[in-house]
Amino acid sequence: MPHIEKKEESEDFLKSLGFPTITVHDTFTHFDFLSPGRRVLLIGPMGSGKTEFAARVWRDAAIAQKKSDKVKAMTSTGNLDRRKVFFIRSEIDSSRFEDYPDDALCYRSGYVRCGDNIAKIRDSFGLEEVLKDNPEVGTYIIDEASFFDERLAYVVRNYSLEKGCMFIFPTLILNFRRDIFNSTARLMLDIATDVIPLTAYCEHPDCMDSAFYTYRYYQVDGKECPALYFDPLIVVGGDKQKDGSLEPNYASRCDRHHFLPAKEYTFFTLKPLGEEAGRGNVEPLYKEIRALNEDKEHSELYRNLMLRYGSDPDGEIYINSIVPNHIAEKALCYLFCEQNMIGETLLLKLARDLELDTVYMSKTLSDNRHPVSFEQGALL
For residue 300, what is the enclosing H or E element? Predict the structure, then answer.
């Protein structure tokens, strides 16, 4: 946890220097490596500086390691020393910073080199291997912890309690839907000892408010197209501006400029259609998915958007949400992968009968840990 001086102490110090009566903010200084067993969440939208904060911890550790053995005794528990920092990133996130060195802890405005103290892991079992191989490390920075399986939260908690190790998590707690990211994120909140919230400027060109939310959108033919509520939870891609329907872009946005179309449609139309299909009446879902694939303006989704946002000042942006491709594929993946309302057999049948893009669906489901084979043999 960062060391933050009490406001009263800061005020007394400034008064002693002859400062007039002014607003004095808390002093944000160095990171605290003294306290054992901390599990620190750095939360905020994309672009709020979570990983840059982690890089600052790395630099503070490098300075602290130059101090005496007396300091080492204060920052150590047994054989581990909390001034020794190790950085961990998810394997599925490896394409975000492909232009940087392999050993870089990188963020949007730079990076620091970690040497051998960096690893990419797939899951909590990979984390256990890293912990086993580095018994002297006292602080682990685990980037985007919400990308991992929920077991990771308790691996972290148990290890920190048993060994006195500190863990720092620069991570999204809210997804682009403004929901708790997933069950892993919920458990991270449960086991955390400290939470440091970060914000960013709203990245809308006409706004300077603080942003708490991550906004997902597609850039298609120069249009800003907000991601629909049932867009895939995880979309693996790089960290550069993208054009087209396959990969989204992200921005920090305030409440007013965080556009999230089709939430009502998802709960009032799409999910009931999925429930009905799961009970055996597939035709209504088939009709809607076909419209989303072949004639969007005759879909229930389009009618819902026009009714909800047709007269809204930002209505055009909301309506742009149906411009990207693969909306039918996304709707089916949502019902199958996240809601478990339709089975694999029905998913494969609808994908085949409606001639959907199974390459896109296969990648989406695999990225979201529900791999399905769309090979011809699996469809028969």
Answer: helix 300-309
